[in-house]
Amino acid sequence: MQEKELEFFKIQLLDAKEHILQNVNLASKELEQLQNQENNDDMDFASMRSDALIEQVISDQQNAELADIEHALSRIENGNYNICEMCTEAIGISRLKAKPYAKFCMTCRPLYEKSQ
Ligand SMILES: [Zn+2]
Predict the structure, then answer these.
(1) pTM flag (> 0.85)
(2) How far is the CA of 85 from the centre of ligand 1 (A)?
(3) What's the confidence (pLDDT) of residue 13?
(4) Torsion angles phi and psi, residue 84, rounded to 5
């Protein structure tokens, strides 16, 4: 992969990281507010609890995505960014454009998902 392309994906990854960090901050602030409200004698106690749970799940997913992004950034540093972690073939540019932190090529991705 060319230097220019790597730079492009690096910027994509850093942007995505920034975006998630903002969302996580927002979600944790909301979660904090909900938890504070739970201490009050509120009629909506039950529904607020489930809302809080949803927030928690969202931020878990975002944390997982964040880990994938960090992993991809370290792959850029190590010079194996576009190499499939399963078959070591190059991952297509179009696939990386759709998902800049893809770890597997189009062939291996479904195999990996099945094995999970
Ligand atoms: Zn592969």
Answers:
(1) no
(2) 7
(3) 97
(4) -60, 130
